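Appendix B, Record 12. Input sequence as logged:
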Amino acid sequence: MNVWIDLENTPHAMIFEPIIERLESLGHQIYLTAKDTGHTLGLLDRFGLSYDVVGGGERRGTVSKGISAFDRAIRLAWRMKDCGIDVGISHGSRSHILASTLARIPCITAYDYEHSSKLFVHSLPDRILLPACLQDSDRIRTIPSEKVSYYQGYKEEIYLSTFEPRSSMELDVTDPQSIVVLVRPPSGFVHYHTTESDLLFTSVMKMILSRSRTKAILIPRSADQERELRATYRSFGDRVVIPDGAVDGLNTIWHCDLVISAGGTMNREAALLGVPTYSILTATLGAADRSLIQEGRLTHIVTREDVASIRFEKRPPGRLPDSSSSVLEFFVNQIVSWGGTS
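Logged structural output:
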């Protein structure tokens, strides 16, 4: 079976790497396309995966994003139309969904944040994969029930189920006496970006740098943001570490004492690994994040005053929490079963 997978941002590389490995072990042929954005290509290179680059860069504004997505969709459809694809899958890539329709390729998509625009995300795919925590959401009631398949758990468990931490992180910041904080700034390109998230990030960094023996690892979202952060925090020397290029994010999280992030994926990764985790996302939280908050694994920092409640403590060495491979198997089975009927 020929399976087309499209990656539109950095977390997608993490999600689909174990899926690709599993599908190839079953004898299926993978066609991988990727958008050159964030650290997507860097991660694919680290994984040793072959891919075709289609499109790149970030756009601001709804119109500009729409034009870019449509242009990429046309290029994807043209590239894939004669490849004999049995089924295509992405995690909410609008360009992939539209391209599959144009090229008449059976399409599976997935998402786990219900508050983003779902223009043609609900109407065009043949199958939509969602976490069970979204079942009661008003946002998905417009989807025909026969299109939807639910899985128990979180998409991050797809790759957490295969994660094995190394003895140390690749960044030279390990210090038995220092508290090491992994910080993910807000993205200025997502539709849910707010000024308050930027202010919360600034307050977090001020708090970290006001404390003795506390270090920050900053994981920028783009090359432009990396340059801006380096210019802002250059004077703090080794107290603020900004990696050059893509890093092993899970292993870095595992060796940090806490994680503070203005986004969903890294927060969920850290929370599921049992690392103290704080969200400074000021947009409407999705059901997945609310579920982790209810489970006591994620703390939501809503105001700048809340920053003072963050507990900066050394994290004792711990055992890796058990992580089920059921979500990984769910995605693989959906792809195989749907592709086999195309």
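The first helix runs from residue 10 to 25.
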